[in-house]
TrEMBL record:
<dbReference type="GO" id="GO:0016836">
    <property type="term" value="F:hydro-lyase activity"/>
</dbReference>
<keyword id="KW-0456">Lyase</keyword>
<dbReference type="Pfam" id="PF05683">
    <property type="entry name" value="Fumerase_C"/>
</dbReference>
<dbReference type="InterPro" id="IPR004647">
    <property type="entry name" value="Fe-S_hydro-lyase_TtdB-typ_cat"/>
</dbReference>
<protein>
    <submittedName>
        <fullName>Fumarate hydratase subunit beta</fullName>
    </submittedName>
</protein>
<feature type="domain" description="Fe-S hydro-lyase tartrate dehydratase beta-type catalytic">
    <location>
        <begin position="7"/>
        <end position="175"/>
    </location>
</feature>
<dbReference type="InterPro" id="IPR036660">
    <property type="entry name" value="Fe-S_hydroAse_TtdB_cat_sf"/>
</dbReference>
<comment type="similarity">
    <text>Belongs to the class-I fumarase family.</text>
</comment>
Length: 183
């Protein structure tokens, strides 16, 4: 089912999404990859505040290529989500409502998604140039020294994703295999 949502995302909206839904996000989302997640995690361990408020926000696991002239951002494809699995439960517990990436997640992440009524989306890997067309503004807001791995605030319009793990723990990667398994 196609759904159109605004980011940041409300608790009700996150809970209404189901594994397998095609979703188009409009609004503000944030980018963060491995190095930024590590820094945020270390900041939390030291009792420091984070550079972005997690409450109801969505983080896209992406490090863009340089923007071409006249574009807000370069190629903007997803990176492998499992590299953030160590850090994701802590951020979800702080109110993060959505994550966008590609690939499977650990059970600890799935449990944190359910516990917090959040959602894990997948963006199509290999389609970074097409995905970048949905990004109309990109601003580095933290960890600029990390280059492409800096935290960015993105303004997106109809950014296409698929719900992989919904707030009830339904996992498209598991149900799709069962649906098409030949016995």
């Amino acid at each position: 089912m196609d759904k159109y949502i605004k980011a940041p995302i409300s608790n009700e909206e996150a809970k209404s999404l189901r594994s397998g839904d095609y979703v188009y996000i409009t609004g503000k989302i944030y980018t963060a990859r491995d190095a930024a997640h590590k820094r945020m995690y270390e900041a939390l361990e030291r009792g420091e505040s984070l550079p972005i408020d997690m409450k109801n926000n969505i983080i896209y696991y992406m490090g863009p290529s340089p923007a071409r002239e006249g574009r807000a951002i370069g190629s903007a494809g997803p990176t492998t989500s499992s590299r953030m699995d160590k850090y994701a439960p802590s951020l979800l517990d702080l109110g993060l409502k959505g994550m966008i990436g590609k690939g499977k997640r650990l059970n600890t992440v799935k449990e944190a998604i359910v516990r917090n009524g959040a959602v894990y989306f997948a963006a199509v890997g290999g389609a970074g140039a097409l995905l970048s067309k949905c990004i109309i503004k990109s601003t580095v807001i933290a960890y600029e020294d990390l280059g492409t791995e800096a935290i960015r605030e993105l303004e997106v319009v109809d950014f296409p994703v698929i719900v992989v793990i919904d707030s009830e723990g339904n996992n498209l990667y598991e149900t799709a295999i069962e649906k098409y398994k030949v016995e």
